[in-house]
Design a protein that fits this description.
Blueprint (H helix, E strand, L loop, with lengths): L4 E8 L2 E8 L2 E5 H8 L16 E8 L2 E8 L1 H10 L4 H20 L12 H14 L3 H12 L12 H14 L18 H31 L4 H9 L2 H14 L13 H7 L10
Antiparallel strand pairs: 1-2, 2-3, 3-5, 4-5
Helix pairs in contact: 4-6, 7-8, 7-9, 7-10
Length: about 280
């Protein structure tokens, strides 16, 4: 076919589906859709597709380029109607209400990236934090500003590599980074009540991280649009939780745990394991 194609990959209930936009028409990867609908590895003839809506396209895979069958929208609905899985209706609604409008508007699907998609970016940020002594929130803010997004979940899949390269430039060249002076000290006065509130704020943050870790897998299995954001809250701010724990332990070291007052929070503060990855909530 002479029309240019553009491949996009997204996830439905954690299962990948590849879409090739040919001209202005989306074509769905047959094997991906069959897996979602529980229809098995059937041949094209058994689905009684309209042959005008079937294309064999060279598609990147783990084994290199492979010829794969893609079907157009009418043929997609023929597959959906053959499925007895309860997910079939949900899949149909999702394609109709989210995927197709996005393709009609932009010419490609620009869905949210998954946590796996963002692994390379998280690794780059980890390196930045290690090499430059930043806290994670500041490191991610640099990425947000550069990519003009509010969270890394908002970075389109085709822009993730650009974000990774930007972070690598900072690591190698120090671009846009002014390293803090190691001997800077600031003196502030806090009331006892204010210190207690800071400690309780840390405790609330700890419980929030633990809660997000507990529900993250469930939201991912459900295919929720919130799953990426929940993953970020569950794991991308652990460094902040640990460093804040150290700071609060240092400035409250003269206080004793008192189960009868608000200083009972110190028990949680001092029992926290800074090496923990899974957080109790």
């Amino acid at each position: 076919m002479s029309n240019q194609t553009q491949l996009s990959t997204f996830n439905f209930n954690s299962l990948p589906v590849r879409i090739n936009v040919i001209g202005l028409d989306p074509f769905f990867c047959l094997v991906d859709v069959a897996a979602i609908l529980g229809l098995g590895n059937r041949s094209v003839s058994k689905f009684k597709f309209n042959p005008k809506g079937v294309e064999k396209l060279s598609t990147p895979s783990n084994g290199g380029l492979q010829e794969m069958i893609f079907i157009n929208e009418p043929n997609l609905y023929r597959m959906i109607f053959r499925s007895n899985k309860p997910e079939a209706e949900t899949f149909q609604n999702w394609v109709f209400e989210e995927v197709l409008p996005a393709i009609r508007k932009t010419g490609k699907y620009e869905g949210k990236t998954t946590a796996d998609d963002r692994t390379g970016l998280r690794n780059a940020v980890n390196m930045l934090v290690s090499k430059k002594g930043l806290i994670y929130s500041d490191a991610y803010n640099l990425v947000h500003q550069y990519m003009n997004v509010e969270t890394i979940e908002d970075i389109p899949a085709d822009k993730l590599q650009s974000a990774v390269e930007y972070v690598h430039r900072i690591v190698l060249e120090g671009e846009l980074i002014t390293e803090p002076k190691k001997d800077d000290r600031f003196n502030f006065e806090f009331t006892e009540y204010e210190l207690q509130q800071l400690a309780w704020l840390w405790f609330a943050f700890k419980r929030g991280v633990g809660t997000f870790q507990h529900i993250e897998r469930a939201f991912n299995v459900l295919g929720s649009n919130m799953s990426g954001q929940i993953y970020g809250q569950a794991y991308e701010y652990l460094s902040v939780l640990r460093s804040t724990n150290q700071i609060l332990n240092r400035i409250t070291k003269e206080f004793e745990i008192d189960p009868m007052t608000n200083w009972r929070v110190l028990q949680h503060l001092r029992q926290f394991d800074p090496k923990a990855v899974k957080i109790d909530f």
